[in-house]
Amino acid sequence: MPSKRTRLIAGNWKMNNDVPAAKELAEALVEQVPASDSVEVVICPPTIDLACTSHKVADSAIKLGAQNVYWEASGAYTGETSCDMLKSVNAEYCIIGHSERRDYFHETDEDVNKKAKALMAAGIVPISCCGESLEPDQEGHRGPRDHRPLQVRDRLRAHLGHRHRQDRHGR
Asked: Which CATH number applies to 7-168?
């Protein structure tokens, strides 16, 4: 019998909400999001809001995720966040490979691969983005998508021997 897969709904807050607004939104979501065996809900607030939202979603159906990570454990990397820092606020997920980071900050497949490996070594689930920016869809382009993120995923799975989210959760 095939294993049942749990769906993941992740909300990327992007660069929105100061600390008071983040607390208020997290509280409202906790009240409205019921526990479910078939859907896992993750919020990904800006780094500045991770600590306060962590406290608000503790013991709720909502999981916490980050919007970015750096692959080094520590060092002179101004403005970056390590896996240990994410773990200290109970982040269980982290978005990587987002088209905005690729476009604006010139992140490469190699960068995304390093982040994925660091996250998995730390026990944090990477949410690897496989889409494109919004502009092609808004402009009506429905042609071939950029398949590089999927190729990175496949190489990472091969490297890990197919250990991925399903195995981590026993599904």
From this structure: 3.20.20.70
The answer to whether residue 1 scores a pLDDT higher than 80 is no
* Rounded distance between C-alpha atoms, residue 24 and residue 5, angstroms: 31
pLDDT value of residue 164: 47
- In whole angstroms, give the CA distance from residue 38 to residue 40: 7
DSSP string of 83-131? HHHHHHTT--EEEES-HHHHHHH---HHHHHHHHHHHHHHT-EEEE---
The predicted model scores a pTM of 0.80
Token pair belonging to 15: 């660069």
Contact 65, 127 (CB under 8 A): yes
Q: Reduced to 3 states, what is the DSSP secondary structure of residue 105?
A: helix
Task: Round to whole Å and give the CA distance between 146 and 28.
Answer: 36
Give residue limits of the domains in the chain: 7-168
